[in-house]
Write a structure and sequence with these properties.
About 20% of the residues lie in helices and about 25% in strands. It is of the alpha+beta class. The protein has one domain: Sandwich (Jelly Rolls), CATH 2.60.120.
Length: about 140
């Protein structure tokens, strides 16, 4: 990998509790936000200092189409160690479980194909390379 060509993975989409605040620290990218069953996505730009809060059961997925790392914090009341709320403890136990299995995460085979196509178009503009084609080509 050359210093001018960052291989960009796509994080999986997921659902969070209401009140999660996402704060961009460095880099640049975007987050797609939507409600389950909705066809349209809202695009939120991520730049240092950007902040947004997720509403209850909002699905979202973060993207970094550029060459520089995108760093952000997702903050909410409580922590993994001290969840404070019973629903946070329950969600922690199913955080990496697929939506179709009652969890919070969208597995790549279940991802809307428009999301990957949009991201692929974005990285083409920045010169970043994809490490995800093996996942999405297998779906075709």
């Amino acid at each position: 990998m050359s210093p001018r060509c960052r291989e960009a993975p796509t994080p999986r989409g997921r659902r969070h509790d209401a009140g999660v605040h996402v704060i961009a620290i460095s880099g640049a990218g975007y987050t797609l936000v939507w409600k389950e069953g909705e066809a349209a996505y809202e695009r939120l730009e991520l730049r240092p200092g950007s902040i947004f809060a997720l509403t209850p059961d909002t699905l979202h997925q973060h993207f970094n189409p550029g060459m520089e790392p995108l760093r952000y914090l997702a903050l909410s009341i409580g922590s993994d160690r001290y969840p404070m709320l019973a629903r946070k403890l329950k969600r922690k136990q199913m955080f990496d479980t697929a939506l179709k299995d009652g969890g919070l995460q969208i597995d790549y085979p279940d991802q809307d194909p428009r999301i990957h196509a949009l991201w692929r178009d974005e990285i083409a503009q920045t010169g970043a390379a994809s490490r995800m084609e093996h996942v999405f080509e297998a779906r075709s």
